[in-house]
């Protein structure tokens, strides 16, 4: 059993860590304060092809579509400094762009993947409604057929990237019977008449990530924009969420790693009673527990990613990875604040933001739908 990374994966970790430290970390606090992604970072992310990580090069992507571990590493390293950017790129890639590549036909790939991979358009996956989220089969947004088009009516809530997205995957009820067998996924351009962005959520954490309500009023979508076949949305939606859980696990893993590193750094600098607090056994125990949790989360996350690449059923592994990683992030963030003492409550230290961000990873199945 080989737990080592390939040379390519090691290189991707190094490049992404350096990029995140240089371009994302310095503006993360301000982005959190204003609840907006930094536009300069957005352009640099496009240049580095982080919006195309899961897409083949023929469609403008980075060609990591068969290397989910490398994608997880990218998500982890970005999440290590800023969970908002990690969830933005992670959702874009894992639950919008990649599903079009995996389930779309040639025409859909040609039309939608290139601008998504280049970051010219941001992607979102739209499942959650007021009474449908964890109950994926409870979708009420309707799609009524008229000629060679479907007319969408209804709304979605808590859509990550919703307010900045140019392309949506929308789960809709395409039949009269309220049943899982009546769900269909539509690819929707956000410049389609009748579509609008509703309330932008003011969140506890990952504040720079856009989370919005989306409204559909007689939105006409051509039949050719159905992804994966009519009434096949429930099955495809679950598969999309499976891949999304690896993304959330990786994001939380990175956040937990960031908490751990910040705690080690602070404990080696802060003095009390004439001694670095890192010398105190109580602090050492906290850091030992954090390290164990982080490594456990990493093993589960990479295992799920590996199983995905081996074309194995990774649904259960992805769920376990997401659970363990999100809990590891929350525990690491709590301990990081404790180790920092009063300074842990101050925005001058990143652990205050990490603590708020960590809770977002626990709250939902994929934290993106």
In short:
By secondary structure, the protein is an alpha+beta fold.
Q: At the first level of CATH, what is the class of the largest domain?
A: Mainly Alpha
**Order of strands across the main sheet:** 1-4-5-8
Low-confidence stretches: 365-369
Number of domains: 3
- What proportion strand? 15-25%
Sum up the overall morphology in one term. Answer: globular
- What is the share of helical residues? 40-55%
Determine the mean pLDDT: 95
CATH superfamily annotation of the largest domain: Butyryl-CoA Dehydrogenase, subunit A, domain 3
Number of helices: 9
CATH architecture of the largest domain: Up-down Bundle
Count of extended strands: 10
How big is the Rg?
21 Å
- What class would the helix/strand composition place it in? alpha+beta
The topology string of helices and strands comes to HHHHHEEEEEEEEHEEHHH
Termini separation: 35 Å
């Amino acid at each position: 059993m080989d737990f080592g990374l390939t040379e390519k994966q090691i290189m991707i970790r190094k490049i992404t860590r350096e990029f995140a430290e240089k371009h994302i970390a310095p503006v993360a606090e301000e982005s959190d304060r204003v609840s907006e992604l930094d536009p300069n970072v957005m352009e640099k992310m496009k240049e580095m092809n982080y919006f195309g990580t899961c897409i083949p090069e023929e469609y403008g992507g980075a060609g990591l579509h068969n290397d989910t571990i490398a994608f997880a590493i990218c998500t982890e390293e970005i999440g290590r400094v800023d969970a908002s950017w990690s969830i933005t790129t992670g959702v874009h890639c894992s639950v919008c762009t990649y599903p079009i590549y995996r389930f779309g036909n040639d025409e859909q790939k040609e039309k939608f993947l290139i601008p998504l991979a280049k970051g010219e358009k941001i992607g979102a996956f739209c499942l959650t409604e007021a009474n449908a989220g964890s109950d994926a089969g409870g979708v009420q947004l309707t799609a009524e057929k008229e000629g060679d088009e479907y007319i969408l009516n209804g709304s979605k809530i808590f859509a990550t990237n919703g307010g900045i997205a140019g392309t949506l995957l929308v789960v809709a009820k395409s039949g009269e019977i309220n049943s899982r067998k009546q769900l269909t996924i539509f690819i929707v351009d956000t410049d389609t008449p009748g579509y609008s962005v509703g309330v932008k959520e003011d969140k506890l954490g990952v504040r720079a990530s856009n989370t919005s309500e989306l409204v559909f009023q007689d939105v006409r979508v051509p039949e050719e924009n159905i992804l994966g076949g009519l009434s096949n949305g429930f099955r495809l939606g679950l598969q999309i969420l499976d891949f999304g859980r690896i993304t959330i696990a990786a994001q939380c893993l990175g956040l937990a790693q960031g908490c751990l590193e910040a705690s080690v750094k602070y404990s080696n600098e802060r003095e009390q009673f004439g001694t670095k607090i890192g010398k105190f056994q109580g602090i050492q125990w906290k850091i030992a527990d954090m390290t164990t949790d982080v490594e456990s989360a990493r093993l589960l996350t990479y295992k799920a990613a590996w199983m995905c690449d081996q074309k194995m059923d990774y649904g259960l592994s992805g769920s376990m990875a997401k659970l363990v990683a999100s809990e590891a992030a929350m525990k690491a963030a709590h301990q990081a604040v404790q180790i920092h003492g009063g300074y842990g409550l101050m925005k001058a230290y990143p652990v205050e933001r990490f603590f708020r961000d960590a809770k977002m990873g626990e709250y939902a199945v994929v934290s993106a739908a």
